Amino acid sequence: MANDNGAPPPPAAPHAPATTGPPPPPTSTAQAVQVVLLVDDMVASLAFYASLAFTPVALLDAHRSRVPTGAADVAGVAFAMLRRDSAMLMLEARASIPALHVHYPASVFPRDRPLGGTAIVYIRGVDPDEARAALPSTVPVLREPVTEWYGVREMTVRDPVNGYVITFAKSTA
C-alpha cells in the first residue's frame, strides 16, 4: 500500500529477538552498602554513636556547608558521616530533609512516623564482648553476646535516642 505521495511505505522495523537465559552480568561492582539513619536529635545521636567508638568524618549543616569535625558545638549539624575502622554510618536530621533533598516529596519522610524499628544495622568485625564492656549503662541490650550456629558471635542493642537496632558481630573462625 502506497502513502499519500504514492511511495511505498518504509519497511517494518525488525522485532528484537526474544531473550532467553540469564541477564548479562552487571558492568559495575557493588563495593558497599552504607546506611543512612534518620534522626530527630542530632546532638544526642552523635553522642550515642561516639560512645560506640564512631568518629565523624564529615559534618554538614542544613545549607550543605561543612562543620569542622572537631567542633564542640554540633547543634546545627544536619548530616554526619561517621566511621569506626572501615565501617561507615551516616546520620541525617529528619527536619533537614526538605532543605537537603528538594527532589523528595514531603510525604517520603513524614514527621509523625516514629524512627527506628524499621532497620537493623549489622556491624561486622567488632568483637561483641569488647563492645558490651564499653557500652554505656543507658544503652538497652536486646541480646547479650552469644555465638550463633553459623560461627558468628553477636550482640544486639537498641539505639536509646532513635530506636534503631544495632548488632555487633565477629566471626569465630
Walk me through this protein's architecture:
This protein is mainly β. It has one domain (35-171): 2,3-Dihydroxybiphenyl 1,2-Dioxygenase, domain 1 (Roll). The protein is built from 3 helices and 9 strands, in the order E-H-E-E-E-E-H-E-H-E-E-E. The strands form 2 sheets. The chain has a 5-stranded mixed sheet, with helices on one face. The longest helix is centred in the N-terminal third of the chain and has 10 residues, at 42-51. It is extended, with a radius of gyration of 25 Å.
What structural keywords apply?
five-stranded mixed sheet, 3 helices, 173 residues, single chain
Sheet/helix structural class: mainly beta
Task: Describe the sheet with the most strands.
Answer: 5 strands, mixed
Strand arrangement within the widest β-sheet reads 1-5-4-2-3
- Mean pLDDT score, rounded? 82
CATH architecture: Roll
Question: Helix-strand pattern, N to C?
Answer: EHEEEEHEHEEE
* Helical proportion, percent range: 10-25%
Low-confidence stretches: none
Q: How big a fraction of the residues is strand? A: 25-35%
**What Rg is obtained from the alpha carbons, in whole angstroms?**
25 Å
Quickly count the domains.
Answer: 1
Distance between the termini: 75 Å
Please report the total strand number as a whole number. Answer: 9
So what's the overall shape?
A: extended
CATH class: Alpha Beta
Under CATH, the homologous superfamily reads: 2,3-Dihydroxybiphenyl 1,2-Dioxygenase, domain 1
CATH topology: 2,3-Dihydroxybiphenyl 1,2-Dioxygenase, domain 1
Supply the number of helical segments.
Answer: 3
